[in-house]
Amino acid sequence: MMTDEKKNSAHLNRRQTLMMMGAAGAAGLIGPMAIGRDRAFAANADPSGQLVLAFSQEPTVFNPLMPHIEVDEGLYYAVYDTLFDFDPSGEFFPILAAEVPSVANGGITADGLNWSLKLKEGVTWHDGTPFTAEDVKFSLELTMDPDFRSFRSTGYKLMENITVVSPTELTWTMSEPFAPMAAILASTYIVPKHVFEGVADKNDTVLNTAPIGTGPFKFKSRMAGDHIELEANKDYHMDGPFLETLIIKYVPDLNVMYTQFKSGDIDVIGLQYITPDHLEEAETLDGKVVKVAGTATFESIGLNMTRPQFQELAVRQALYAAIDKTSIIDALYYGVPTPTETYMPRQSYYYNESLPTHEFSIEKANAILDEAGWVKGADGIREKDGVKLAFSNSTTAGNHLREQAQQFIQQTFAMIGVQMEIKNFPPAVMWGDYWMNSEFDSVVVGLNTLAGADPDTSDYFMSTMSPALGGSGQNTFAYQNPKVDELLTKGAANFVPEERKAIYEEMQAVMRDDLPFLPMFQYAVIKGWKDDVTGPEPNVNNRIDTWNVRDWKRG
Length: 555
Prior knowledge:
Mean pLDDT: 90
CATH superfamily of the domain at 298-524: Dipeptide-binding Protein, Domain 3
Low-confidence stretches: 1-43
Radius of gyration: 23 Å
CATH class of the domain at 298-524: Alpha Beta
CATH topology of the domain at 298-524: Dipeptide-binding Protein, domain 3
CATH architecture of the domain at 298-524: Roll
Strand content: 15-25%
Structural class: alpha+beta
């Protein structure tokens, strides 16, 4: 057992390590872009062996252009391709694109309005159909189809006159300059146009049950609630794949998932990784590699801003004051995550270091509510204008650390006259319509709101991006703030990193004051894999481990 002194030292070292692991500050902006990974058509090694990758949540959305969460991208990176992507340093590398468009290579005009994209030749879909610029055009336009349930509309709606010049080249113009466009394209998975032909409802195609991509692995089978089996795409257009079979296993209980990793039934432990209460033992396991890695995900109590309980700022301030997040981090998470006041990761160039520091104080929380006129009733629950300070809080059932945090928060909220009912669901239910359509009161949620290394978060915080309010985006908090809208618009139109930094720092300050979510900590996750597995690499600029699954090997 570690002494307290050794524990504190170990956690300090981890934090110091995390501070050095981030994305390159201004990477991802339009300008010269790295093309180091464009290896064209490699002589693929014969794939061999099987690897079992475990997630605590189940991938259920197989069309990558429809609303989805991080775990679904765990499948997408294996089956589909993007045009280009971010590496761990924040630089772009090409995938389906022959080169990443930039001002330097003529792919983007200096004003950011005219784009030309060149694609690799000879790429095929998993069913043997040739991949062409028509597929890219179709994918981009599908996101803007009003009859299609799109994952995102930010950026795409500014694209005009998308023109196929040849099977391997297309052009378009932007209705206005939009700095995050390259980062958005880096997270846009391209889908096959031909599977939509003759389909009346584009929301209901073969992709929903048997995805077809250009990626390193082909979809083979699925046992709902248990696993997905993928097989090597031996015609893949990059190096790899090096595995014959990839099994994505669904293990909702985090203790069970760790036990299966410990016993060897799991080769790579993915989302939600090894929980901090198992870290000390995990670091001693024979035949295992265990690493603490920083991510861009932050944990918060997210509030549904349409609920009357959360309309008043004083309520949100009091709730935040009544969260003892230091105790949660130290007692439940063994000091591994880092407390935060914002959605922006500390590793980002755009992180605001000067935000007010949270102070846990039951006295302060009670005083705020007293002054705001929220009066305790006979049942001890505060009420004002016919509204009780009572609401539900939901998260993923089986995530024992979150469930313990909920119970602790429930108790501290009760001390200020707030009743919080815990109402958890299996992942497929929790992160389905319940989350996407803002059917919750409040949630414990981990979010990465960035597009790679770019600081734009329009999809999550712009007023027009709330599905519950008629928008098409990820603003499930239903947050509406004209100042935030103004800053997001201003930041997206600016291409100068230093000027953008000031804009996004101001936005973080506005949101810290407004508290549409109650920030707790930035994730530091504990990743693990067998020591005969090579390839897994932390990447703070991507949302999930499989960003480079094409490179993973056994032996």
